[in-house]
């Protein structure tokens, strides 16, 4: 993806910089001290990178297909991602696992599966929504027999504040089509992905 596409479509760095200055002032910091002089601009650049998925759909990444004589399960595990919790604007970081069963031999490249996860993650997000967005995009774009998406992540809003429980992971899953209808197929997918569910 080109650099100009890796920023939110309606990005306004000046607004972010003003907002960061207000936050720093609000917590009692001196925005004129040396260490903070360039912080508002740095934060704006960081948010451009962290939120470039705003206004984009994971379906955009699922645009190339191949025909392969198979209706066997395709599984990709441990896709790393990072996102921003929309409730506290703190990161959550984890791994996504994706499985689908092609229909009529219609498959996509493995890197496309990983990119679909990343584009859904690069915005203020909820893990539950992220999981469903990826599953729904795969169903729409690939028209497979079924899709299973599982996401495991540590949320810094839980690690650094509130209950302060570092290491606790949230696990979410979304199942569609054959994975929803057939418990054996779902169990096979969880086993292939190395997950303790089914």
What order do the helices and strands come in, and which of them pair?
Blueprint: H1 13-26, H2 39-50, E1 66-67, E2 74-85, E3 91-101, E4 106-107, H3 110-121, E5 124-125, H4 127-142, E6 146-155, H5 156-159, E7 170-177, H6 178-181, H7 183-192
Parallel strand pairs: 2-5
Antiparallel strand pairs: 1-4, 2-3, 3-6, 6-7
Helix pairs in contact: 1-2, 3-4
Tell me briefly what this model is:
The chain is α+β, with helices and mostly antiparallel strands and 198 residues long.
Query: Largest sheet at a glance?
Result: 5 strands, mixed
Order of helices and strands: HHEEEEHEHEHEHH
Detail the poorly predicted runs.
none
- Continuous helix count: 7
Mean pLDDT: 92
Percent range of helical residues: 25-40%
Could you tell me the number of beta strands? 7
Radius of gyration: 19 Å
Strand content: 15-25%
Note the overall shape. elongated
Q: Tell me the span between the first and last alpha carbons.
A: 36 Å
Strand order of the largest sheet: 5-2-3-6-7
What structural class do the secondary elements suggest? Answer: alpha+beta
Question: What distinguishing features does this structure have?
Answer:
198 residues; alpha+beta; five-stranded mixed beta sheet; two-stranded antiparallel sheet; elongated
What features would you describe in this structure?
The chain is an alpha+beta fold. 36% of the residues lie in helices and 24% in strands. The chain contains seven helices and seven strands; from the N terminus they run ααββββαβαβαβαα. It has helices at residues 13-26, 39-50, 110-121, 127-142, 156-159, 178-181, 183-192, and strands spanning 66-67, 74-85, 91-101, 106-107, 124-125, 146-155, 170-177. The strands form two sheets. A five-stranded mixed beta sheet has the order 5-2-3-6-7, sandwiched between helices. The chain has a two-stranded antiparallel ribbon with strand order 1-4. Strand 2 and strand 3 form a beta hairpin.
């Amino acid at each position: 993806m080109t650099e100009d596409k890796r920023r939110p479509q309606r990005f306004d760095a000046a607004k972010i910089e003003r907002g960061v200055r207000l936050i720093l002032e609000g917590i009692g910091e001196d925005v004129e001290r040396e260490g903070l002089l360039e912080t508002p601009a740095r934060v704006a650049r960081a948010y451009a990178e962290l939120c470039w998925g705003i206004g984009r759909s994971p379906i955009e990444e699922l645009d190339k297909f191949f025909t392969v004589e198979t209706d066997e399960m395709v599984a990709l595990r441990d896709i790393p991602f990072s996102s921003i919790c929309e409730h506290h604007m703190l990161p959550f970081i984890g791994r996504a696992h994706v499985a689908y069963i092609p229909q009529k031999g219609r498959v996509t490249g493995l890197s496309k599966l990983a990119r679909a996860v990343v584009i859904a993650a690069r915005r203020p997000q909820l893990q539950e929504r992220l999981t469903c967005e990826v599953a729904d995009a795969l169903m729409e774009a690939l028209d497979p027999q079924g899709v299973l998406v599982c996401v495991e992540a540590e949320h810094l809003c839980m690690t650094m504040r509130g209950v302060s429980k570092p290491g606790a992971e949230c696990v979410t899953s979304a199942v569609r089509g054959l994975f929803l209808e057939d418990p054996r197929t779902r169990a096979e997918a969880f086993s292939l992905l190395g997950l303790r569910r089914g």
